[in-house]
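hiii so um. not sure if this is the right channel but i have a protein structure encoded as tokens and i wanna go backwards to a sequence. like what aa goes where. can anyone help
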């Protein structure tokens, strides 16, 4: 701010509320969310006090929308919020080892198939170029 002489002056604490007493953004308890929501809704739409409340609390209008939806569904209570995502499945070390070995087996089988294909092609090219006699014993068995 500038005073009448045009020099900069420090903002008063009334203009900028202290952030020390605010909850960190995104870390509100259910009771705090309900209190913020009640205060926000107590102001008329377009009232500048709504914006001031959000700035003071470090919240956004998207938080208000989300909290309204949670309140309407009944999930915004003092109790712990339900965990999001799928519940964790218990780990079975033997099944993990089986899965790993199956993947390794599939990889090695594919590698062997490629190597056998390359060898077959090399034999055919050598036969076509006359480098090997056509009557070699079969390596397959």
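sure thing!! here u go:
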């Amino acid at each position: 701010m500038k005073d009448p002489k045009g020099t900069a002056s420090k903002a008063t604490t009334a203009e900028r509320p202290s952030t020390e007493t605010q909850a960190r953004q995104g870390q509100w308890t259910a009771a705090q969310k309900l209190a913020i929501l009640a205060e926000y809704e107590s102001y008329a739409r377009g009232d500048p006090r709504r914006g001031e409340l959000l700035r003071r609390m470090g919240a956004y209008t998207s938080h208000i929308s989300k909290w309204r939806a949670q309140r309407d569904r009944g999930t915004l209570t003092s109790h712990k919020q339900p965990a999001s995502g799928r519940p964790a499945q218990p780990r079975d070390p033997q099944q993990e080892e089986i899965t790993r070995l199956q993947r390794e087996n599939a990889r090695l089988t594919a590698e062997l198939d490629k190597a056998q294909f390359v060898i077959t092609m090399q034999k055919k090219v050598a036969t076509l170029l006359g480098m090997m006699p056509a009557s070699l014993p079969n390596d397959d068995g």
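oh and Helices lie at 30-42, 48-57, 61-73, 93-129.
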